[in-house]
Every structure is written in C-alpha cells, then in structure tokens.
Amino acid sequence: MTTATNRKTAQNYVSGRWIDPEYESMLDVENPCTGETFARVPLSTAAEANRAIEAAHEAFKDWGQTAASRRAQPIFKLAELIGQNEDRIVRSIAEELGKSLPDSIAEVKRMRENCQAASGMPILQQGDKLVGAAAGIDSEVLKLPLGVFAMIAPFNFPGMVPFWFLPYALASGNTFVIKPSEQVPMTMQAMAELIDQCGLPEGVFNLVNGDKTVGEAFMAHPKVVGVSVVGSSTTARHVAATCAANGKRFQALGGAKNHLVAMPDANVDAMIANMLTSCFGCAGQRCMASSVLVGVGEEMYNLVTKKFIQAAREIVMGDVLDPNFANDPLVMGPVVSSKAKQRILDLIDKGISEGANLVVDGRAFTPPEGCEKGHFIAPTVFNGVTPEMTIHKIEIFGPVVCIMKADSLDEAIQMVNDHEFGNGASIYTQSGYHARKFKLEAQAGMIGINVGIPAPVAHLPFGGVKGSIFSDIKAQGKEVVNFYTEKKIITERYWEE
C-alpha cells in the first residue's frame, strides 16, 4: 500500500492506493471561520465511483470468507490509531467545519467508541440455533455478509457519522465505499490515512470524493448491496426511493426538529445550562440540536424566556482555533458556508414576517479581526412562536431557537407528536410520573430525561421516527449488524447410515 502525503488537494483512495483526480473539476474547501480556501476537492465522475465499487466487489470474495476474529483486528487497531491521532483529527474537524474544540473532541471520542463496539463482531454477528426444532430436525440462523456497501456522508459530523456505519460494515465481512461531503472532505482524508495503516486487504475500504454524481452512481451500480445516508429529509427520501426501485437495502436518516419540554418542577439553573449546549453546540448544525424550547405553564414559559435570553447573550464567538478561548465550553463557531448562512438569514426574516418575536437577534454580529469573511450568525432566539409558523415547522440547521408555551404536559407532547419530524425530544422534570408519561407517549426515536442531547452511546442504535428516518434499521450498535448481514435459515436432518 502507498503512503499518503500531506495533501492540499484531496485524493480518492481505491484498492489501497491514493488516486489523483482524473479531471480538473474541483471545489474549494473553506475554513468557515476565516473564509479562506485551504484545500481543494475533486468532483469525481461516475466512472471513478464505479471503479471503486468494482474494487470493493473483488475484495469481498476473500474478505467475506475471513474469520470474524481476524476481521475485528484491523478495527481494533483503528480505534487505537484514532486515540493516538486525536489532536490531528480534532484540528481537521475544527478547521474545515468551524466546530469548537470541545465539540470536535467529543466527536472523535464517539468515532473511537464505535470502532471499539464494532470490534466485538465475533459476538455481535453470532446467530441462533435450535436443537430439536422438530423430530430429528435442528434449525439455525446464520448472519452472513452480503458484499459492497456504500455511504453518502453529511457535512456536520465529518468524522463521527461515517463511523456509525464504516466499522460495522467492515467487521461484519462486507466491503465499503464512502463519499465524504464535498464541503468537508479533509477529515475523511486523514481517516483514510489511518485506515491504510490497519492491515485491511486492498479494496476492502475505498473513498471517492465528489458531489451527488458519485452518490447517484452508488445507488445505480448493481454490485452495491446497500446504501447509507444522513442528510435532509428530502435527500433521505430520494435515496430511499431510488434504492428501493433498484432493489437495494438502505438506511436514510433525515431531518429533525427536537423539542425540550420544561416542566414547572424542573431544576431551572441546571436546565438552562443544559439547553444552551444542546441548542448552540456545533452552531446548531446537528440532527440532535434542540431548536424548540417548550415552557409548560405561563410561569415556566416566562422564566425560560428570561433566563435563556440572558444565557444566549453570553455565548463567545470567533475563530474556534484562537488559543484565547479555543477550549471554552461555550465558544461557538460559524455555520459551514455563505450559502448556509443566507438560508438561515432568510428563515429569520420569515419568522419575523409571520409574527414571532425576535428577542435575541444574531444577524448583526461583528466577527473579530481575521474572521471578517467568516460565516457567522450569533445565537438567535424567538418567542411567541406557534406550531404553524415556518420557523417551527422546518429544520433551520443553525443557531436559531424557538420558545413556545404549552398549558399542560399533554399539550407539550401533542406539539412533539404533531410535528413532521421525530428525531429526539427531552423533558426536564423531577417527577417520575411526568418523565414516564413523556418517554412512552412522545413520538421521537431518542428521548432524554433531564438530558438535552439524548444521543445514545455507540453500542445502542441511533435514529428517529416519522419524517426523520426512511428505513427500519437504525445506525450504529448491535442493531446495525442486521443491515450488514443476511439471515440464512438452515433446517437440517441426518438419517442413520
């Protein structure tokens, strides 16, 4: 295998080799804190994607027959390499996404945890056996790998989200082709360098840079068994429909609008601090970001509004790599691009025009020296928001929060349940009765009790319900093994010779 060099132009990685782009079609990769271009990414063709798929298909012939314990070894080594290179990966995420160092560190730790979980594949992939299923007959269920799987990655977690899928696909005996987001390709470049050191056979892991052309090639190629995508619900719906039409498996995780419900008995100070990180971490650019606060009762609604406004105004903003506040837990960076910023600004205007009260206006933030070209929007808060308003109905994917009022817990739950999305929802309460009612009745895939970001740990499944997911097998953990394996049922009898 070749050794990767320090590249400013991203390369593809196919059959254990770094491949220079064939054509001159390139996109600039910006540091969103400064607006400066620091790398370029090629827009690969369908033909280039197809060659990676063919390489993965050829590699599967041997890799799928490799013992589970041996398949797990490179994944365990990758977990060690991630730990040894944590600082480098953290800096890559911060540089190309503008994510704070504390948030980037948390992302890298979850990448490593998923590798550790997938290293247990000799146990996770075990089947079942029933001796005496009928007279003289035994039955067993085998979980067997299928072939080539592909993944279309989002921009907001350039390291963690691919690791909801990648280590499990490889450890279960499949081969893998990934397309990183063209907005943030350099973190997966760094990860491919580490994967190159893990001892995987050539072609087992492959990386193809590009835009939707590559994603469409994944869904069209007959040798791709299944595709995973995390993105908007529009994208997820398209991937689900296309894969279904082409006879492929799919995992399609979509949008979110996560509600935090504040009950009258909540621990207010702890709750506000928790809400703050939930809403403004990663500049609100995560599917588990909370963008709706629901105060139950007039008093709690007013208290949440008052205290959250005060806290939002204390958020520190600037270049996330500035040593003066790089490790501040309340530092917030920019959104990913000028296009994303304009979309968010348009939605803020929409909220104003529909009658919501803009109580914290983040549009006028003045970036610090050196960040004048950065894509900054400061924390922005509306109250007086009602369910039919656009800013409540759609996923803004930025640092914009809606505060709403409910007269009862039942009404708050109804707000959650009436919404198109159902990714996550949380309640703040000291009452076991209210907590139990909420976790059973709220229609969201991930529920928090006094936890603002109820993202499950690596060995549990990650995914929502309703319009937040277009598949029935969720990401990461033991459950995802069912996506990457086919159950073969054996019924056997042996007559006496």
Descriptive report:
By secondary structure, the protein is α/β, with parallel strands linked by helices. It folds into 2 domains: 12-254 and 469-490, Aldehyde Dehydrogenase, Chain A, domain 1 (3-Layer(aba) Sandwich); 258-449, Aldehyde Dehydrogenase, Chain A, domain 2 (3-Layer(aba) Sandwich), CATH 3.40.309. It contains 15 helices and 23 strands. A 7-stranded mixed β-sheet has the order 16-17-18-13-12-20-21, with helices on both faces. Helix 13 (390-393) links the parallel strand 17 and strand 18 (400-406). The longest helix has 18 residues, at 46-63. The radius of gyration is 24 Å and the shape is globular.
Compile the SSE list and pairings:
Elements: E1 12-14, E2 17-19, E3 26-31, E4 36-42, H1 46-63, H2 68-84, H3 86-97, H4 101-118, H5 121-124, E5 128-134, E6 137-145, E7 148-152, H6 166-171, E8 175-179, H7 186-195, E9 205-207, H8 212-220, E10 224-230, H9 233-245, E11 249-253, E12 258-262, H10 268-280, E13 290-296, H11 298-312, E14 316-317, E15 331-332, H12 338-353, E16 357-360, E17 380-383, H13 390-393, E18 400-406, H14 409-418, E19 421-422, E20 424-428, H15 432-441, E21 446-449, E22 465-466, E23 485-493
Parallel strand pairs: 7-8, 7-10, 8-9, 10-11, 12-13, 12-20, 13-18, 14-15, 17-18, 20-21
Antiparallel strand pairs: 1-2, 3-4, 5-6, 6-23, 16-17, 19-22
Helix pairs in contact: 1-8, 2-4, 3-4, 3-7, 10-11
